[in-house]
Amino acid sequence: MEHSPNDVTERLNDLEIKSSYAEDLLEQLNMTIYRQQQQIDSLILQVAQLRLQSQNAGQDGGARNLRDELPPHY
């Protein structure tokens, strides 16, 4: 089955449009992954800092504030 030159041109234009949308989507997804990795790296650093603070607080032993031991009031 032969296609007229207009049909081929129209199909080619449609493919170029779809390709352009796919490229834009891929770029958006890459940026999303990049931002998420930055957030993950930041959270890993925060967790490491909190662990260090917790270990340091645990080494202080008796230097706990009694207010920390009081139950919450309702």
UniProtKB/TrEMBL annotation:
Region (Disordered): 54-74
Pfam families referenced in this protein's UniProt entry, alphabetically: SlyX
Bias (Basic and acidic residues): 65-74
InterPro entries to which the protein is assigned, alphabetical: SlyX
PANTHER family, per the entry: PROTEIN SLYX
Protein name: SlyX family protein
Organism this protein belongs to: Acidovorax cavernicola
